[in-house]
Amino acid sequence: MKVSLRTYGGLMGGLGQPARVIDDAELDDNDKLELRRLVAAAAATPACPQATEQLRDAQTYEIKIEDHGKSVTLEATDGGVPQAFAELRDWVRDH
After folding, report:
1. pTM (predicted TM-score)
2. What CATH number labels 2-94?
3. Where are the domains of the chain?
4. How far apart are alpha carbons 39 and 9 in whole angstroms?
């Protein structure tokens, strides 16, 4: 499984940051299990409403999950980031 995180918008404008990519083939068994748990939780959590005009400096986070030839993209914007999504986003940032 590969999980990539892309962040854009907010004060960075349209440029964003380079995507961070985690390949579970490079992880130890404990990290693989944790990544799969976080992905399952984030994928099962309904999306929150998108940021409003009041949050013009909000960042948007895109998490792309590729596993066994299937691809799923999750997206959330500051002001509407579900807890499970935030946990996955933060884990990818930290690894």
Report:
1. 0.86
2. 3.30.350
3. 2-94
4. 23
